Amino acid sequence: TATQGRLDGFFKVL
Amino acid sequence: MLEAKLEQAALLKRIVDSIRDIVQDCNFECSESGLSLQAMDNSHIALVSLLLGKDGFTDYRCDRSISLGVNVGALTKILKCGGNDDVLTLRAEDKPSVLSVMFEDSIQDRISEYNLKLMDVDQEHMGIPDTEYSASVTMPTAEFQRIARDLHTLSDSVEIDVNKEGITFSCDGDIGAGSIVLKPSSNIDRPEQSINVEIVEPVTLSFNLKYLNHFCKASGLSNQVTLRLSGEAPLLVEYKLPNGFIRFFLAPKIGD
Fold this sequence. Notes:
A: 0% helix; B: 4 helices
């Protein structure tokens, strides 16, 4: 089954 | 200090209603240009980004930038004390410990005022890169809400496929499977019923339906919603507001 991705990889902390 | 008046309390009530399942505590950032918010859910799966430009308010004044750390549940309780059609005024000092929320009901000649205790919210601010999306689909909010609700009765996740023929939502769960296909259409008499598909390349991604149903709480804010998808990037679900927007980003499911 597919695993839920996270946003951290896409958006960088400013 | 901040002084911001909305003609109808319903706007802020609906905005807060649409984020309260995702975010517990957040900072409302008030500046000369308006009110904004960016917050992620605890599991870092979804992010909400709100902009309410100053022209969206009847009156708006903010001399210097103020950060209002708010418990969303507490704000919801206070907003429930006002009527949808009440005029709403938010007030805060430059270094506030409370946010004043005033409701005016001109018909009943009733004025009520509540003070919400503010808090320090330690929050990371994320940079949202400009993304060239492979596909953008604009559709009636009610349609999107219905699809998210119906498919969630069958499964926890939905596969969204966009190609030049249209957009397909499909799911496969324990009790069975379902799919909905929407083809591009334009309705001149009722433009809010139109379905617009812009596509650079076909895209297929899977998402958690629980979050999509949370986002759909924003349906009362706009007649149309836009979904933007690209590669394995987060899905963007956007509702336009008077002089602003509320955007939800949702990380896709990976692999199968």
